[in-house]
Write a structure and sequence with these properties.
The complex is a heterotrimer. By secondary structure, chain B is mostly helical. Helices cover 70% and strands 3% of the residues of chain B. Chain B starts with a helix and ends in a 6-residue tail after the last helix. The chains are: A mainly alpha, B mainly alpha, C alpha/beta. At the B-C interface, helix 2, helix 3, helix 15 and strand 3 of B face helix 1, helix 3 and helix 4 of C.
């Protein structure tokens, strides 16, 4: 029983990280039909402000030395700002381009961000000790759960509920849903397109920065390539959850986290190195079973 | 005026082939480094043209084709390395492969056939998907390839590089295969499979009602594109002499996809132009980063800026020309103006 | 439509012509200077790992030049950039060789150094990997004139096994392998081989993870589920994954002795796990000022004076050793001919260097047995506590099976 509970918490904690990433990607896709490959690099850029730019092996703390509320606020605002700037500079001009073009443009943007970080900081990972007390384990019904994981799971749940409420009840949310359904009609009905998109990007950037903070607290390091592996999984999670559906993205993230943890725990040693291959095999089978994702939004469903 | 030439639109592959020939000849006047750059470009051309065969006609963004490039590359490694080296480094190889020592052309083609075979197996399953689901499925394929090849130590050497592949490929060999790739892509393009796939891309429902089986068209394109990508992989292995699973993973995937989209993914000329323009740009920036002396002045870009400038230029190119540089049109053989000309120059898509 | 097309063609052709013209290749300088080529990463992600060793090599070159040069000839350095790209690495090697390099020093990382080393081998020149720890960075991979100046990964693992049993009375060990790169597998292979030879050492469990994994919760649960906490955990990994893993291990309350490979040496990452204790790393020399050989501290000070900061990890040292042993071999061979120098290098048995004795043989152009200093971190402070040479050299077939 304890082992199952432990596994459950392990799966939930990994899944919540992927789910948060998937939320950020689903938000932008829902509004703009854009898969933002730069999302991981926005996250990395936002948290690199914790340290001062230097190519030395040890970097002095910059924002990282500030008090916690100020630190969190600054990093979140940095993420939102970077995301909004990227919309203004790049994606605004690609509103009517094909998905392929916007995908590659977002990838190129991420490439620029990553290499800028490389020039400023060098590729060596830098140590940042953020909130070490969060990693202390709590004992929940016999299962050992680091406080940080509980925090991640709760934040994901709160955000999901909060965002769902915002989409359903608030004016901004209504505008976003309408823009997602039919962008041009929404504009004709008086929805300020640019504002809606800016809000979506801002929220997405904030989410990215949030994941970044949680990851730094978990691993204790910042590294220019830390966004990559997690964002790939988030991208996959968004698709299997159903593009355009926030709940689906979160579910997709938790699903991948669960499968990955299960395989890590139950595969024999010789096969464990191939764990990711099995995860992706499972993704393919899931897509064959449900090509449009687990939750199909009306925007995606074919009408013929 | 329905000559063989015009009917098969041979103008396009001819123009492209001649342009590449010209570039190769010009490169011979430069340093050994320049010749290597051009060879790299030609090998990359094979991969991007292979990518075009599938992505261009189906409109499905495939992230998985580097898996086929890698399968081709490792296939060549298995059949051309010296048997004694294989015994030492890859003890788990089947006895037949271990003793194999094939001539390079045969090895390259066999590697590509292996890639095509894998594509046939995988494609028959995932080609039932469409749109972004298919893209994710192809990405899953790439991830699986990477994990398997990085951990199957006894057969692939694991995550570290296999060294010792005979380097038989230089400019002319690469050029020959680039031309072969272009011809194959062109033939597919004008065949009923290419046409059928393009119709599925434009109007899936109408195409279905005309009796076109989407799955079959996609599969044909997938297998052919895997074959050409496998050729590219074999060339790459025999050019560098070294293979490694990470060389055929995300970084090269995005480089090739970007070259394709910037050139214009809807036409063969787009693929070729994208590779040439971006390769030239990158090489120019690399040289400026190393320091170029023009007369008495040396221009020296700060280290690390080459990638940033390339990225910025890519974004700008995509903003200015969202449909690609070629906008879906093809280079064609210049002819005298005639009423028939309008039909011949009709764009293949968009 | 005609103009834009012609324009595009013109742009494309012009860029290539510019490239052809601008390819300024300096002619090979024959004569008095002895050229050493460095085909390393000056940009891109490999740069952070190549630069320290390259700088150390420069220090030795300066020392030799100050003492009158090698065989009376001044050592000239030619540097080309691999840009952390394999294809570019081959070109960088070619460029350096074209400028008359007698020795080609290639990247620290075997994957990025081998294309350049292959070019050198093709031209019959000697190549040296700055700090590659893969057996293939040598005869078995690149060719008969290729060497590496660092200590094989397997030796690091084997040293940890033997030392932990002899000095820390470790009986139960757990192996945690990061399957991302071959180096990690090399460490664990060496550990497993030596552990088999140790009476009284039992490996109670094994697990794998990937360097990029955000969380190793499942792996930690497996360790916690053992009936008794293992005395030691052999962590075969590198930064950043290793730091993240250690942080999570300690946070979960696992206080076993953690054994590592040399890759985690350095204090730059210790902020990730504040107050770390019970953590050992095998190194070639001490960057902390407490090396038993005073010449190492002299080197550290010279490094700091010349480059603004002390070396950040033990991986600077193989660069110095490289030039050191090569220069000695050249002097003994009285020539820079690759085969003659190779012969002299292969005769070296326990050749003294300030970072420990070095041996090269006809079969192995690496160190498969070496004196390693044992560095232990106590309360976040690293210090050398011991030194150890494995009693048996790691055999070739263990190295090749990796």
């Amino acid at each position: 029983m304890t082992a199952t509970l432990q596994y459950l918490f392990d799966a939930l904690s990994l899944g919540s990280l992927y789910a948060l990433g998937a939320l950020g990607i689903a938000l932008i896709f829902g509004v703009m039909r854009l898969v933002n490959f730069a999302h991981g690099d926005v996250m990395t850029f936002a948290i690199f402000i914790l340290i001062a730019p230097t190519t030395e092996a040890v970097a002095p703390l910059w924002v990282g030395a500030w008090s916690t509320p100020l630190l969190v606020l600054t990093v979140l605002v940095a993420g939102a700002a970077l995301s909004i700037v990227s919309e203004w500079l790049v994606f605004r001009h690609l509103r009517h381009a094909t998905p392929a073009t916007t995908m590659m443009a977002s990838f190129a943007l991420g490439f620029v961000l990553q290499n800028t970080l490389l020039v400023l900081h060098s590729s060596r990972p830098k140590a940042v000790n953020l909130w070490p007390t969060l990693s202390m384990p709590m004992n929940l019904w016999g299962a050992r759960v680091p406080g940080l994981q509980m925090l991640m799971i709760s934040i994901t749940m709160l955000l999901l509920i909060g965002l769902a409420w915002m989409l359903k009840r608030s004016r901004v949310g209504l505008e976003m849903r309408v823009a997602a359904e039919n962008f041009d009609m929404a504009r004709m009905l008086g929805v300020k397109a640019n504002r809606v998109i800016l809000v979506a990007f801002g929220l997405s950037g904030t989410l990215a920065a949030l994941i970044g903070l949680l990851m730094v607290s978990q691993t204790g390091l910042v590294d220019i390539r830390m966004g990559g592996p997690m964002m790939l999984v988030a991208f996959v999670a968004t698709v299997i959850g159903g593009l355009g559906s926030l709940g689906g993205a979160v579910l997709g993230g938790f699903l991948i986290g669960a499968v990955s943890t299960a395989l890590q725990a139950w595969l024999p040693l010789e096969a464990r190195a191939f764990r990711d291959a099995f995860v992706y095999l499972a993704v393919i089978f899931l897509l064959l079973w449900r090509p449009d994702g687990l939750f199909v939004t009306s925007a995606v469903r074919q009408r013929v | 005026m329905n000559t063989f030439f015009q009917r098969h639109r041979l103008g396009t592959p001819l123009v492209l082939g001649l342009a590449l020939l010209l570039i190769t000849i010009l490169s011979l006047t430069g340093s050994a480094g320049l010749q290597r750059t051009v060879t790299e470009m030609l090998i990359r051309m094979v991969m991007v043209v292979g990518l075009f065969i599938f992505v261009g006609h189906s409109g499905v963004m495939s992230f998985g084709h580097m898996a086929f490039v890698g399968i081709g590359a490792y296939g060549v490694a298995w059949t051309t390395m010296e048997p004694s080296m294989k015994l030492m480094m890859l003890p788990g190889l089947h006895k037949m492969l271990q003793q194999a020592d094939l001539p390079w052309v045969v090895a390259t083609v066999l590697g590509a056939l292996l890639a095509a075979f894998v594509a046939l197996l995988v494609g028959s399953v995932i080609m039932r998907l469409s749109g972004i689901a298919a893209s994710i499925a192809t990405f899953s394929l790439l991830a699986i390839f990477n994990v398997v090849y990085s951990n199957w130590d006894s057969v692939t050497g694991g995550a570290s590089s296999i060294v010792g592949i005979p380097t038989s490929v230089e400019s002319w060999q690469a050029l020959a295969f680039a031309v072969v790739a272009i011809v194959l892509a062109h033939l597919h393009s004008i065949s009923r499979y290419g046409l059928g796939l393009r119709s599925v891309r434009e109007e899936p429902v109408a195409a279905q009602s005309c009796g076109i089986n989407a799955w079959r068209q996609l599969l044909v394109a997938f297998v052919l594109s895997a074959f050409v990508c496998g050729l590219g992989g074999g060339l790459d292995a025999q050019f560098l002499g070294v293979v490694n699973p990470d060389a055929y993973y995300l970084s090269r995937t995005f480089t090739c996809l970007t070259m394709l989209v910037i050139g214009g993914s809807a036409s063969l000329s787009g693929a070729v132009t994208g590779v040439v323009v971006l390769s030239a740009l990158i090489e120019l920036l690399v040289r400026f980063e190393a320091g170029v002396s023009i007369g008495a002045i040396t221009i020296h870009l700060p280290t690390g800026s080459q990638e940033i400038v390339v990225g910025v230029v890519m974004v700008l190119m995509l903003i200015r020309r969202p449909a690609g540089l070629m906008r879906g049109r093809d280079w064609s053989w210049p002819t005298r103006s005639s009423p028939a000309k309008a039909n011949l120059k009709a764009p293949l898509s968009n | 439509m005609l103009s834009p097309r012609l324009f595009r063609t013109a742009v494309v052709l012009t860029t290539f012509l510019t490239g052809a013209v601008a390819s300024s290749v300096a002619l090979a300088q024959a004569g008095k200077d002895l050229v050493i080529g460095f085909a390393n990463a000056k940009s891109g992600w490999v740069e952070a790992y190549d630069t320290p060793a390259r700088r150390a090599a420069m220090i030795r070159i300066d020392e030799i030049n100050a003492a009158g040069g090698l065989m009376g000839r001044h050592l000239k350095v030619v540097e080309t950039d691999t840009k952390s790209d394999r294809a570019q690495s081959a070109k960088a090697g070619l460029e350096a060789l074209d400028q008359g390099a007698e020795l080609l020093v290639v990247s620290c990382d075997y994957d990025f150094g081998s294309p350049a080393a292959l070019q050198a081998q093709k031209k019959g020149k000697l190549s040296f990997f700055l700090c590659a720890e893969d057996i293939k960075a040598g005869i078995q991979g690149v060719g008969k004139n290729s060497f590496s100046s660092s200590v094989l990964a397997a030796v690091q693992g084997a040293t940890m096994a033997e030392w932990a049993v002899a000095k820390r009375n470790v009986k139960l060990a757990y192996v945690l392998l990061d399957t991302t790169i071959e180096y990690d597998k090399g460490i664990c292979t060496g550990f497993d081989w030596m552990a088999d030879l140790q009476k009284g050492l039992t490996i109670v469990g094994r697990d794998t993870f990937k360097n990029g994994d955000a969380s190793i919760a499942a792996q930690i649960s497996r360790i916690k589920a053992l009936p008794k906490e293992p005395d030691a955990i052999m962590l075969c990994s590198y930064i950043p994954g290793a730091a993240s893993a250690v942080r999570q291990l300690r946070a979960a309350g696992i206080n076993s002795l953690i054994l590592n490979g040399s890759a985690v040496d350095g204090s730059y990452w210790l902020d990730s796990v504040p107050g770390l204790s019970n953590f050992v790393v095998p190194v070639q020399g001490s960057i902390y000022g407490d090396d038993p050989n005073p010449k190492v501290e002299e080197f550290n000070k010279t490094f700091a004076a010349k480059f603004g900061a002390r070396p950040s990890s033990t991986y600077a040292y193989p660069g110095y050793v490289l030039i050191d042993v090569w220069a000695k071999a050249v002097e003994r061979a009285k020539s820079t001919d690759a085969d003659k120098v190779t012969e002299e290098l292969e005769k070296m048995r326990n050749e003294p260097t300030i970072f420990g004795p070095r041996t090269f043989t006809k079969e192995i152009h690496h160190q498969n047995q070496a004196r390693m200093l044992i560095s232990e971190i106590k309360a976040g402070k690293p210090a050398i506590v011991d030194q150890w040479t494995i009693t048996k050299a790691v055999p070739l077939d263990v190295l090749l099976k990796k």
